[in-house]
Amino acid sequence: MLRLVSLVMALVFCGCWAASAAMGPQKVKNTVHNLSTSGEWMYISDNEDEICIFCHTPHGGSLNGPLWNRALPGALEFTHYTTATLDSVTDGASRALSDESLLCMSCHDGAMAVNHVLNPSNRTHVQPTMNFGQTDVSIVPIFGIGGRIGDVVDAINMPMGETRNLTDDHPISFSYDAVRAAYQGAGRGNQLHAPADAVAAGVRLYAPGNRVECGSCHDPHVNYDSTIPMGDPTANENYRPFLITPNIGSALCLACHNK
Ligand code: HEC
Ligand code: HEC
Ligand code: HEC
Ligand code: HEC
Fold first, then answer.
1. pLDDT per residue over 110-148, tens digit each?
2. Residue 12 has pLDDT above 60, yes or no
3. pLDDT at residue 217 greater than cutoff 50
4. CB 191, CB 198: distance < 8 Å
5. I want to staple 246 with a disulfide (CB 3.0 to 4.6 A). Which of 43, 166, 195, 238 is the partner?
6. Which residues have any ligand 3 atom within 6 Å of their CB?
7. Which residues line ligand 4 (CB under 6 A)?
8. What distance in angstroms lies between residue 141's CA and the mean position of ligand 2's atoms?
9. 82 contacts: CB under 8 Å, gap ≥ 6
């Protein structure tokens, strides 16, 4: 408990990472992001009861995220979405992923083990194991449902093992400001809202450059699942799956796009 409190305090007082406040109900314990023994979904540990440890540690973590307890994949190992209509800012497969999105991809690439941390707990002194003692469990798509986004289609259309493909996913790791400036130059300035209006409508943009990352649309701690545990009254289903703001009537999309 003390450890949890000091971790939260350190993160809050540091204040160096948060882009803006997440507004949905918070309780990561009651979500699929609870990989500890108290988790209720598919990826749960058989020896580690700490919830935060799968992503955060009070000491000895990585400086690439908020007290981050995981190694990150290489920033250049991903291929991006590309089309003829995209602005040149977001077009091109060679763009590197920013750290804020690599945090997510350190599990969601389907390659890296979800249960391998930089600093294991002082009580176990070992890596968390899952599914009866396994140390390297990565996210696999099951009947096309799953938390691995480099993949749901890839698992069908691409050779197995291709996991870092973002070509069928909304563009990330680019500057919203730069795209907006290019739009204005091309006479399309009315098609994206001003960054302050987008943030006011509930999305996060990351400094520098007001970048769009996974966390622009997602909050990894939001309590959206009223079925874990059964009938959780504090959950709000409108935030499914881990949305930063509900997408009712496409409100999330319209926070940025003026369409
Ligand atoms: C599945 C991974 C994961 C788990 C588990 C997790 N977090 Fe986080 N946390 C993140 C990510 C990713 C961020 C960075 C979000 C962003 O882009 O701002 C973050 C950010 C934070 C921040 C910084 C402020 C903010 O909200 O962005 C705090 C504080 C925090 N987490 C506390 C906790 C605590 C306490 C727990 C355990 C009860 C926990 N987290 C569990 C992934 C996780
Ligand atoms: C420690 C590993 C880990 C990290 C880090 C992590 N996730 Fe997850 N995430 C999971 C697992 C495990 C699942 C459940 C996968 C499944 O059941 O197929 C999941 C599921 C999800 C889902 C689907 C939830 C649903 O109900 O269908 C979303 C959305 C998601 N994560 C977003 C994110 C985002 C965004 C980040 C970064 C801010 C992130 N995750 C970081 C492990 C992680
Ligand atoms: C522009 C907004 C946006 C961005 C950026 C974004 N997502 Fe999502 N994501 C969504 C929405 C909206 C959904 C829910 C779609 C639905 O319900 O139809 C979703 C669904 C998901 C799911 C559930 C499985 C699926 O394929 O539907 C996962 C996992 C996920 N996102 C992870 C991520 C990760 C990891 C990143 C960064 C690499 C990311 N998302 C970036 C908006 C976004
Ligand atoms: C945080 C702001 C933001 C959010 C939220 C957002 N987008 Fe985007 N989206 C952008 C920007 C900026 C681009 C890049 C446009 C460019 O480079 O031409 C983009 C690109 C796209 C493209 C590709 C356009 C092309 O020319 O190929 C589509 C389609 C799109 N978004 C739809 C959506 C949908 C649907 C949602 C909601 C699920 C959504 N977006 C949420 C900012 C956002």
1. 788 999 999 999 999 999 999 889 998 888 765 444 444
2. no
3. yes
4. no
5. 238
6. 101, 104-105, 108, 147, 149, 152, 170, 172, 212, 214, 216-218, 241, 247, 252
7. 83, 85-87, 89-90, 170-171, 176, 179, 192, 198, 203, 212, 216-217, 252-253, 255-257
8. 12
9. 91, 92, 93, 167
